[in-house]
Amino acid sequence: MKNIPPAALIGLFFTGLYFLMALFAPLLAPYGMAEIVGGVWEPSSSQFLLGTDSIGRDLLSRMIYGGRTTIFIATMGTILSFVTGSILGFLAAVSGGWVDQLLSRFVDLLMSIPTLIFALVVLSVMPVTIPVLILVMGLLDSTRVYRLARAVAVDIAVMDFVEAARLRGEKTAWIIFREILPNALSPLVAEMGLRFIFMVLFVSTLSFLGLGVQPPEADWGGIVKENKEGIVYGIPAALLPAFAIATLAISVNLVADWVLNRTTSLKGGRG
Amino acid sequence: MSDPLVKVRGLKIGATVYPPGEKPHDIEIVHGVDFDLQKGKVLGLIGESGAGKSTIGLATMAYGRGGVEITGGEVWVNGRDILKTGLRDVRRLRGSEVTYVSQSAAASFNPAKKIMEQVTEAAIRHNKFNRKEAEARAVELFAKLGLPEPETIGNRYPHQVSGGQLQRCMTALALCPEPDLVVFDEPTTALDVTTQIDVLAAIKEAIRDTGVAALYITHDLAVVAQVSDHIMVLRMGDMVEYGTTDQIINSPQEEYTQALVSVRSIKHIEKDPTPEPVLSVRNITARYPGTHFDVLHDVTVDLHPGQTLAVVGESGSGKSTLARVITGLLPPSDGTIDFAGRTLSAGLGGRSREDLRELQMIYQMADTAMNPRQTVGTIIGRPLEFYFGLRGREKQKRIQELLDEIELGEGFQDRYPAELSGGQKQRVCIARALAAKPKMIICDEVTSALDPLVADGILKLLLDLQKIEDVAYLFITHDLATVRAIADSIAVMYQGKVQRYGSKTEVLSPPFDDYTDLLLSSVPEMKLGWLEEVIAHRKMESAGN
């Protein structure tokens, strides 16, 4: 772990900061999540570090709790999409033939419908709870991961060592998890950073449209929605979540880049 | 004597290496090499991979490839030190005074442009000729190099000519701007042996007729002996020996050169066939799914226990397809395979674990045959675990036994493939095959990617292991010297058919059929004047032309 480049250090620091904040939200937040503690849109003061929101709740506490919800949903969604997407992608690449055709055409079908509209339709008929949200987002996003995983695995599946494993009589599960997965990790990890951020944006969008996290539960998209009227009066409350998403996106991707660089070359990483 | 065309003094070349788990650092790969090259003469640079021969060749164009840097010394071309004259002058030099012929013409030509455009480009860009003159010269060179339809071949795209023809087009490309020096970097290595000989003859004639000087880089001493006036033997960036071709071939002074000259020292006396073959391939016909022609026609061969059957042929002869059919990766459309007294199922899915265990395979490219993310211990240990259920200490002990058998000692278990040399990698692949205690191993061109001395070591190891383990080898190769060294029986394949089949002495004794004659006569021999002799006595054109 020595010789970490400065960019990766910055990324690690901020990513760690956000995740710790999410983890220990109840300990860090000065006030309760839905507690009304002051006036409407009070400016920042020693009492309310970031001011208060449209109905007088402490914004810092809202941001911390909101980060917890947003990061939790995005993380679980990313994990779900990577597990399903990559396993199915590898399976398609290894099996070939009709398995590949069936899975790939089904994924094409899903991808032909705009993700947001698809999610809006599904969420408007289903009860909007956090597990449902994670499931819908994770499965929709897994189509992208499937594409990448299949493309990477097709290249690996034709290597002689995979043929050697087949000739040995290994089962498909061994070929996927022991022969292909370790060699496909680097592009997948790089993609993971990107997809995590798309998840954050996705859940924020849904919440902004009112179909994501439901009030009074806080989340970054919801905070924008609740405070958007304030922008007209020069109140920056709605911009705070945007700032948080941007810094999180950059720092997560700095980390992903570094991980990618370390693991890219099969002959030993560079940098 | 007049001033030499090229004068290299104390040439040092460095590169940055990226060893796994360590910081990148600089190393020196050529440690001060001197040589002269007179106008119109040919100097052969010979050595194994890593000897620095290509790097030295490119240095005569003041070029370092892929992170390689010229760190010291002088390179005088036409009376000036090109390492000091600056980029403008170097640009004038490249493609005009010095040109380059690379190993893979297929990878060097732009597939989207016609051959003529690419052959004449350098001459036109350097204002040596106008387009018309350049094209006339190209046609003249095409004719000189023995290409068919020299008037119109330039209008074709690179994929419309064969590999041997493309390599000759590349020679035309290099000769077109009337350079003083051509650097030939393994120009025939990627070609089939029967094609190589024509290209070699064409290159030799072109060099003689145009009076150009040449650096001829190769790892094959027998090839360089046919074209060069002087030979320089290199090893690990140092000059080992320098002399006239006659002296190097017939009375080498240094031990290393002697080893290179006498390579393939293995003597193997063929064994008599046993009554019960371990593998019997009967009337196999096969084609790839989605194609409309048979890659194998009615192939019938036997392999006896503890013996070696060599399957010889050029690329496209169907020898690797035969291996795929035997392993079950490509079910044949007709015919049967009997193995160890039972008939094997055509497809891989229908074979028992015992069938799979007893029939192992070793690949040409050891690099891709091993999972780069697994350690040597895991790679060798997996068959032990999979077929015999060995675990823990028992498995470790057996892995070490296998490592000892392939002459790698302690401490290799935890290494990754990237941390092994080419020869060591191939040894680990052999150990993986042996771990299954097979009755038979298919060796698919296992020594083709290795340097001659390393390949020799692998062949010796395979022969020793055959004695200890009593395993049979189906040895697929295009290299007849290898066949002579290890085979008990031989099948010569040509266009999907077995052309000639029998014991080694039978197959290699006259009278020959035309194809076997062509194949046998095309293997370069380490004597002067061999090339002219063979060309004069050929009965059949090679398929690659």
Describe this structure in words.
The complex is a heterodimer of chains A (271) and B (545). Chain A has 271 residues and is mainly α. Chain A has a single domain (6-262), classed as MetI-like fold (Orthogonal Bundle). Chain A is built from ten helices and no strands. Chain A has helices at residues 6-23, 25-28, 59-95, 97-111, 115-125, 130-157, 160-168, 172-208, 220-227, 239-263. Residues 266-271 of chain A have low confidence and may be disordered. Chain B has a domain at 279-516: Rossmann fold, CATH 3.40.50.300. Helix content of chain B is 37%, strand content 23%. Chain B has 21 helices and 20 strands. In chain B, strands 6-7-8-3-9-10 form a six-stranded mixed β-sheet, with helices on both faces. The interface between A and B is medium-sized, with 21 and 32 residues.
Strand and helix layout:
The complex is a heterodimer of chains A (271) and B (545).
Chain A: H1 6-23, H2 25-28, H3 59-95, H4 97-111, H5 115-125, H6 130-157, H7 160-168, H8 172-208, H9 220-227, H10 239-263
Helix pairs in contact in A: 1-3, 1-10, 3-4, 3-6, 3-8, 3-9, 4-6, 5-6, 6-8, 8-9, 8-10, 9-10
Chain B: E1 6-17, E2 25-37, E3 42-46, H1 53-59, E4 68-77, E5 80-81, H2 87-93, E6 98-101, H3 105-108, H4 115-125, H5 131-144, H6 163-175, E7 181-185, H7 193-210, E8 213-218, H8 221-227, E9 230-235, E10 238-244, H9 245-250, H10 255-261, E11 279-286, E12 296-303, E13 308-312, H11 319-327, E14 334-339, E15 342-343, H12 353-358, E16 359-362, H13 366-369, H14 376-388, H15 392-405, H16 422-435, E17 440-444, H17 452-469, E18 472-477, H18 480-486, E19 489-494, E20 497-503, H19 504-508, H20 514-522, H21 530-536
Parallel strand pairs in B: 3-8, 3-9, 6-7, 7-8, 13-18, 13-19, 16-17, 17-18
Antiparallel strand pairs in B: 1-2, 1-4, 4-5, 9-10, 11-12, 11-14, 14-15, 19-20
